[in-house]
Design a protein that fits this description.
Length: 280
């Protein structure tokens, strides 16, 4: 199914209106929370909540791609989520496997590049294999980059980066004085993506839950009370419009921002890419 052809006219018009309103976020990250509560409130099982959550994933991925968002990062399973009851973890892994099998073709046809961040070695082998196939198939796509955060922890990624820098120092490739924020960020799994402009969290919780800790230093946060299974494209549009009307100051004053125009937090992204190429 071609997402541009199938898009209905009314939705197309809404998207055109949004684009006129301001600068789209380059990178949207989402903490997809509240599947369980959504289900319990309706007398359903948590599994049914997770299943309905996948419908939201489908809609949000499609809407982001149609709108021209370049990066969408979805927090699907945290490193701490392994501590949930084994039956729930098993169901989540099965649903993930099913999603990957079912969606790859359509994602690829719609020019989506699929990536993952997190401790993928702890995922079931069958999922590791599917992920690998998905990266290979979609690696040259230049539409939306969809990153699934799986078995992910921001602290884990930071510690992993520190370990790799320490190894490079020991090998004489990096000297301690050269360790800057730019260099550090090239050791993170998110090295090739811009920092998130907008982080959405559903179901009203006001915390990061170990998601993109380094990357979110200046990202805008949008929290909605809606549970993830009821969060659909119109809610995404609300969050983007809300984002567009914010002033991102990065420590400066409003007057400075007014006279200098938009400050690009991703200036350093270019530096990171240059550094990344230098070190490879
Ligand atoms: C989000 O919904 C999905 C995952 C964390 C995998 P939850 O399962 O956390 O739902 P609540 O927060 O218990 O309602
Ligand atoms: C965060 O949700 C992780 C994901 C959405 C995958 P949690 O439900 O695990 O977060 P906490 O435990 O409420 O902080
Ligand atoms: Mg939760």
């Amino acid at each position: 199914m071609n997402w541009i052809i199938e898009q209905d006219n009314e939705d197309k018009k809404i998207q055109e209106e949004i684009i006129k309103q301001g600068v789209l976020p380059k990178h949207i990250a989402v903490i997809m929370d509240g599947n369980g509560r959504w289900a319990i409130e309706r007398g359903l099982s948590r599994t049914e909540g997770h299943q309905e959550g996948i419908e939201s994933v489908r809609d949000i991925v499609k809407a982001s791609s149609q709108l021209g968002i370049k990066y969408l990062t979805l927090y699907a399973f945290s490193l701490e989520n392994w501590k949930r009851p084994i039956a729930e973890v098993g169901i989540l892994m099965k649903l993930l496997e099913h999603y990957l099998r079912q969606e790859l073709d359509e994602l690829h046809k719609n020019n989506v590049r699929l990536l993952t961040i997190g401790k993928s070695s702890s995922l079931p082998k069958v999922i590791q294999k599917l992920l690998h196939e998905s990266f290979e198939t979609t690696k040259d796509n230049d539409g939306l980059t969809l990153t699934l955060a799986l078995s992910y922890s921001g602290r884990w990624d930071i510690v992993r980066a520190v370990q790799m820098i320490a190894l490079d120092v020991r090998r004489g490739r990096v000297s301690p004085e050269d360790i800057t924020e730019e260099l550090f960020s090239t050791y993170l799994q998110t090295e090739k993506m811009p920092y998130p402009d907008l982080l959405i969290r559903t179901s009203g919780e006001m915390r990061l839950s170990n998601f993109l800790l380094w990357e979110m230093a200046y990202g805008e946060i949008y929290i909605t009370d809606k549970f993830w299974p009821e969060f659909r494209r119109n809610d995404l549009y609300d969050s983007i419009l809300n984002y567009m009307h914010r002033e991102r100051r990065y420590g400066r004053t409003s007057a400075q921002i007014a006279s200098q125009g938009e400050v690009n937090q991703n200036d350093s992204y270019i530096q990171r890419v240059i550094n990344a190429f230098k070190s490879k």
